[in-house]
Amino acid sequence: MTDSFAINKANWDERAPLHAASPDYNFAGFIADPAYLSGVVTFDRPRLGDLTGLRAVHLQCHIGTDTVSLARLGASVTGLDFSGASLAEARRLAAAAGASIDFHEANVYDAVEVLGAGRFDLVYTGIGALCWLPSVDRWASVVAGLLRPGGRLFIRECHPMLGTLDETVEPAAPRYPYFEHAEPMVFDEPGTYVEVDRELTHTVNHEWAHSLGEIITALLDHGLALTAFTEHDSVPWNALPGQMTHDEATDEWRMTDTPSRVAASYTLQAVKASA
């Protein structure tokens, strides 16, 4: 497993400056407008509720656009990521945007040891995070460890149904695992999911699937109670090129042909049992 994390870290270290320069992440918008929020946080803002004064931790925060957005909604935010290059960009964005955020470099599985147990009112995980982790049960134990009694998990994630689809055929058809598996899926891709000005040289990455049942069961097993769950027919990137259409109103992508036939993402909330 160490090799998988090392391979993925090299991939994300290279992506970080390219993503920070990409118009899709829009660093310029954050710097120019103190009210600007990421598209992911904007999409879920009605579900997030009032974050004023909450101690929040953003796990797998990447270059910090969602992290800064949470801070702008009033939370006191800590960001954690295993990529030092990503955190360098996140710190640069936060400083330019005037956001005070405490960033830490660590594997997400080490978050409780690094940040301390029971410190947070909110654990936030943005889209495209769980697929990089081999064990969703171990992730759920970290979430439970970080939350205070009564604290909340908020996650928006790619739907595992979408994750099974092969984007190289039309119409897209199931090809990849739906359920968790021991060995990683190995991909070798020179590109990334946003517009960048060059191809990657560290092109290999390792990913894992996790079913909805496995995710929910893991949270229940670690003392969290599910409080909200919504499935969406859209995602914030063009997951199936040539088969999705961009919705300008929501800045999301959905299937061009009958969007209702594919669950593309979901939002899940859960609360840790009170002491």
From TrEMBL:
Keyword Transferase assigned: yes
GO molecular function: methyltransferase activity
Location of the Methyltransferase type domain: 58-153
Coiled-coil region: none
Entry annotated with the keyword Calcium: no
Keywords for the protein's UniProt record, in alphabetical order: Methyltransferase, Transferase
GO biological process, any: methylation
Gene3D superfamilies membership: Vaccinia Virus protein VP39
Protein name per its UniProtKB record: Class I SAM-dependent methyltransferase
Organism from which the protein derives: Amycolatopsis iheyensis
Lineage, top ranks: Bacteria, Bacillati, Actinomycetota, Actinomycetes, Pseudonocardiales
